[in-house]
Amino acid sequence: MMASRGSDSDWEAAFFGVLILIWVVITYYWIILGVAAAVGLFFGVRALVRREQERRLEAADEAKLLALRADRQHRWASRGDKRGVYGVEGAELMRSITSQPEVPPADTPDEKPRVAAIAHTAAELDALLREKPAEWRWGVFVSILVQRSAKLRSRIRDCELHYSSTAGRYLRTGKEVAAFVEDRIADLTELTSRLESFIEAPAFTRVFGEDDSDADADADGILHVANRLMDFYERYLDLAERCRDASVPSAYTGLMRDCSQLMAVPLEGIETFMDEMVEVAEELPTMRRYTSGAVDFGTITIEIVADA
């Protein structure tokens, strides 16, 4: 009987508590609804603000990238390159249906001074620095890029082929794989930030001279910045190789492949920059022959873009 009374008492207390709760809800329902609406509005507005901030950042990045590509196309058009008018694919098509105008060879005698050429060997580079022909500053800079990249060509090809001659670190669990990928992405982000600071430093452009002449260019400074730029290139290559060489269970091979491709994005950006610089250096003799004064090639940039 005592147990039955205790059970009845508990039931009555619970029932009474429910009645009180119902009374509170009925009495203060408008306050409860207001608080709920305010909380929902807060999170909704915060989500909208974040979305708008992300949209603006994406729009700014797209505008900057568009401006850089427009500058590149303008540079092509300025020097008579059909890519500046028809685009890359259109220029290939136009070459197949129209003939290119004949241009005298670079060694045609004239009264213009000799223009620097790309040095592919250490001896040629020494001669370029010693003789300092017209536009030698760009010849020296591009020569360092060409010579350093040539030494890394075998490693670049191996990365493109996903070929590894040595076994890298073995990641046994999903947790280890995730930590490895996060660390590599952090390394990539930090290295890219350092590269951006390096290129935007006033000292970087100062070595090429304050005006459009070679007179006040700094030979040692040009050698220094060119080699430091290629140091960045090699460090990006190291990151790509670390992702390529890592061994993981079969469930994570796709993730590691994506990681390797992500690490290759900066390499492609720097290689495109080097290709454009080589184009400029190779066309300088022709441009100097038919123009007087400084030749404006626009801005050549390093684009590092990873599509989401």
- Domain unit count: 2
| Number of separate helices | 10
User: For the CA atoms, what is the radius of gyration?
Assistant: 32 Å
Based on secondary structure, the structural category is mainly alpha
Number of strands: 0
Q: What is the global morphology?
A: globular
What is the share of helical residues?
over 70%
> What profile does the largest beta sheet have?
none
Query: SSE string, helix = H, strand = E?
Result: HHHHHHHHHH
Distance between the termini: 71 Å
pLDDT < 50 stretches: 41-45
Mean pLDDT: 76
Percent of sequence in beta strands = under 5%
Structural commentary:
The protein is mainly α. Helices cover 72% and strands 0% of the residues. It has helices spanning 2-27, 29-78, 83-97, 122-131, 136-151, 153-160, 174-200, 202-206, 219-245, 253-290. 18% of the residues are buried. Residues 41-45 have low confidence and may be disordered.
Descriptive key words:
single chain; mainly alpha; 72% helix
Structure, briefly:
The protein has 308 residues and is mainly α. It has ten helices and no strands. The model is unreliable at 41-45 (pLDDT under 50).
Question: What topology emerges from the helices and strands here?
Answer:
Layout: H1 2-27, H2 29-78, H3 83-97, H4 122-131, H5 136-151, H6 153-160, H7 174-200, H8 202-206, H9 219-245, H10 253-290
Helix pairs in contact: 2-3, 5-9, 5-10, 7-9, 7-10, 9-10
